[in-house]
Amino acid sequence: MTAKIAPWAPTAVAAIAGVLGATDDGLTGREIDDLLAAVNVPPVEGSSKRDRLTQSLLARQARDQAANCVVAFIREAMAPVRYAQRPAVFSRRRDDLNEVLVHLGLRVTEAGQVARGPVAATLSEAARHASSLRAELRRRETHPEVLRYCTEEILAKNAFHASLEAVKSVADRLRAMTGEQLDGARLVDAVLMPGSGIARVAVNTGSTPTELDEQKGLANLVKGLFSMFRNPAAHDPRLHRPVGDAELLELLTTLSMVHRRLDHARIRR
Predict the structure, then answer these.
(1) 107 bridge partner residues
(2) CA 109 – CA 115 distance, rounded (Å)
(3) Which residues, 6 or more positions from 119, have their beta carbon under 8 angstroms from its beta carbon?
(4) Beta bridge partners of 106
(5) What is the rounded CA–CA span in Å between residue 119 and residue 130?
(6) Whole-Å CA distances, 211 to 154, 203, 218, 223, 260
């Protein structure tokens, strides 16, 4: 006989439902209904699929005076066989669930089971204990342009290719901002380096030596990132250029800063 699990706080159940019933990439309404039936949880009406899932699980939890129904739903929803053709979806949902479950001292394993784990009291602890690179990137408020280029590689836990794709985001954005078709250092010199006048993509007015130094510093930083991460990665095998999570985090944070400067840049056509 399965031991009773003490009821979870409604906020925790709602957070779990928020992950599994997310509007864009969560379970569909039909999938939620099928999974509720599979774990013998009667459906309850709600204003959205995540609200319906929350209310259904809370109602069954209140009836049972136990959270077993919630755990059963997570296990059923995270059964690896459901993700045989979508491993990135499994990885993303597992990471997001673990950010919530770590506050309860639980985690979803690679086998889709709910197991004991470390307990976190703060969001930063949750990100660390959940072992989720995406959680830490969200905590750092990483620029969306960076994530747009490398999220799939992060979900696949491929730090090498994530670093390569993330660096490409800056060159691609500079081309989109200016219509320029150059690449690498030539692109940076053409649009970011002030030269004899104001840069085509200017992060300040360029009216003082300090501002010119700032503009040149940004241009040299971008060229340095290209030289350090993109150019070698494009030519050397991944075997000879290992990239760890810590290095990837530092790179994505730096690229995020570059994109934020570009957010407020003035463009000279």
Answers:
(1) 115
(2) 7
(3) 102, 103, 104, 105, 129
(4) 116
(5) 10
(6) 36, 9, 11, 19, 17
- Map tokens 């010199």 to a residue: 189
Structure tokens at 165: 């794709």
Tell me the two tokens of residue 172: 């691609």
- Chain position carrying tokens 């380096």: 193
Q: How many CB atoms lie within 10 A of CB 265?
A: 20
pLDDT in tens, the chain (269 residues): 478 999 999 999 999 999 999 987 899 999 999 999 999 999 999 899 999 999 999 999 999 999 999 999 999 999 999 999 888 888 889 888 988 898 898 989 989 999 987 776 665 665 555 556 777 787 788 999 998 888 777 766 778 888 999 999 999 999 999 999 999 999 999 999 998 778 999 999 989 999 999 999 999 999 999 998 876 555 455 545 678 888 888 999 999 999 999 999 999 87
Distance CA 106, CA 44 (A): 26
The angle that helices 245-263 and 144-155 make with each other, rounded to 10 degrees, is 150
What is the residue type of 242? P
6: its two tokens: 């003490």
Structure tokens at 163: 């670093």
pTM more than 0.85:
no
